[in-house]
Amino acid sequence: xxxxxxxxxxxxxxxxxxxxxxxxxxxxxxxxxxxxxxxxxxxxxxxxxxxxxxxxxxxxxxxxxxxxxxxxxxxxxxxxxxxxxxxxxxxxxxxxxxxxxxxxxxxxxxxxxxxxxxxxxxxxxxxxxxxxxxxxxxxxxxxxxxxxxxxxxxxxxxxxxxxxxxxxxxxxxxxxxxxxxxxxxxxxxxxxxxxxxxxxxxxxxxxxxxxxxxxxxxxxxxxxxxxxxxxxxxxxxxxxxxxxxxxxxxxxxxxxxxxxxxxxxxxxxxxxxxxxxxxxxxxxxxxxxxxxxxxxxxxxxxxxxxxxxxxxxxxxxxxxxxxxxxxxxxxxxxxxxxxxxxxxxxxxxxxxxxxxxxxxxxxxxxxxxxxxxxxxxxxxxxxxxxxxxxxxxxxxxxxxxxxxxxxxxxxxxxxxxxxxxxxxxxxxxxxxxxxxxxxxxxxxxxxxxxxxxxxxxxxxxxxxxxxxxxxxxxxxx
Length: 477
Description:
Layout: E1 29-30, H1 32-41, H2 49-59, E2 65-66, H3 86-99, H4 116-129, E3 134-138, E4 143-147, E5 150-154, H5 161-171, H6 174-183, E6 185-192, E7 196-205, E8 208-216, H7 232-235, E9 241-246, H8 253-267, E10 271-276, E11 289-294, H9 302-309, E12 316-319, H10 325-336, E13 340-345, H11 350-359, H12 363-376, E14 377-387, E15 394-402, H13 405-412, H14 416-424, H15 434-443, H16 449-455, H17 459-466
Parallel strand pairs: 9-13, 9-14, 10-11, 10-12, 12-13
Antiparallel strand pairs: 1-2, 3-4, 3-8, 4-5, 6-7, 7-8, 14-15
C-alpha cells in the first residue's frame, strides 16, 4: 500500500525573526494540499460561501493553479470575525435614535394596545408645548402640527392606518362611534387631565381614517388677552339684539365668543344659554348662571334647541353657528323678542355677512328680512389672524361694524356701498375696515409688511396708504 501522505515541508530558517514568525507571502504556485488547507482553516462567512465554492470547482483535480494576488493581503492569517448580530445592532441604533431628539421622534408600538392612550397623551402634550392650534393625524403620512398658521411635520415615520383608527376609537364615545360608522365623519370633544381640552373632527379620505384636533385654551381668554379692539367690549353691555363674529376657519371666532361670554359672566347677573357643536370652553358660574348644551348629547339640532330656548328664561343666547335658513330665522326671532344673541358665520367682511344672511331667504322674503336685520343687528366683527412681527404667535386684524342709524337705513334700503362707507368713516363709533386695521398694525410695528400685504383685500391700496398716498377716511384713528 502506497503512503500518499505528503512529506512535511521544511521550515525556513528565520534567524532574525520573532518567536512567532509571520507567514511568507502567498506564492504564485501552490500545491493542492496547501490550497485545501487554506480554505479549510479559514471558515467563510455565509455571504462568502458562493465565492469559495467557485474557487474549489475551478481547481478541480488539477495539481497546480495560479491564484491572482490579493489587493491588500493580511499580514496574519487570522479567522474573520463572526457574522454581525443584526438584531442587537438594530436595538442599539434605535436606542441611540430615541435618545437623540427625544421630543421630535416618537415610536409607535402597535403590538401593545394599551399604549394607545400613552400615544395620545404624548401627542397632545407636544401640541400644548409647541403652542400648536391643530393636530393632523392621517393614515400613512407624517404627523402634522399647525403652529402660528404653519404646517410642521413631527416624528420620523408615517402613522400606520390601523393605528389612526385605534387612536380615534379611543377618543370617541359609543354614540360618536356609531355616528362615524354611519356617516364616515363626526364632531367630538376630548379632554386629558392636566393637559387640556380639544375639539376634534374625524373623517375618511381615500378610504382611510383621518383626525383633526384643535386645542382649546385651558385659561378663559379675556378681550385684552386676545388683543381685540376695545369697542368689542361694548357689545357685552347690550341687553338685546344680535352680534355676529365672522371669519374663515381658524381665525379665532370661538375664542372671541368665549371671551364675550366670560365678560358678560363677570359683569352681569344673567342666564346665559349656549348651544354648541361640540362644547369647547367650559364656563363656570360667576355673576351669571350658564347652561351649556351640546348637539347630539343635550339636544338634537340647533333648530330644535332654539325652538325651546325661549321657554328656558334666557337673557343671553350663544349659538355656535348660523348654518341654515331655519337656524338663522330662529336666531333673528330670538333677538327680536328681547334677547342678546351671539353667533358666528364663515364670511370675510361685514357687507358679505349681511348679504349672506339675506341670500338665505327666497326673493319674495328678502326685503322683509332686511327690515328685521336692520332692527336686530347690533354689530359685526370680522377677523383675520396675522403672524406677529416677533415671529411668536398671531394677532387679529378686525373689521368692525357698529350698527348706527345711518347703517340701519342703508341695510333697509339695500345700499351696501353706504354700509362700507359708514365703516370707513365711523372711527368715532369704533368702526374700522380691514384696510385701516392692517395699516395701524403695521405702523405700530406689530406685523411685518409682507404679512400685512398678504392679508389685505387690496394690497395695492394698502401699499399706497403706507407710502402716504391716501385719503383721510383710509387712515386709522
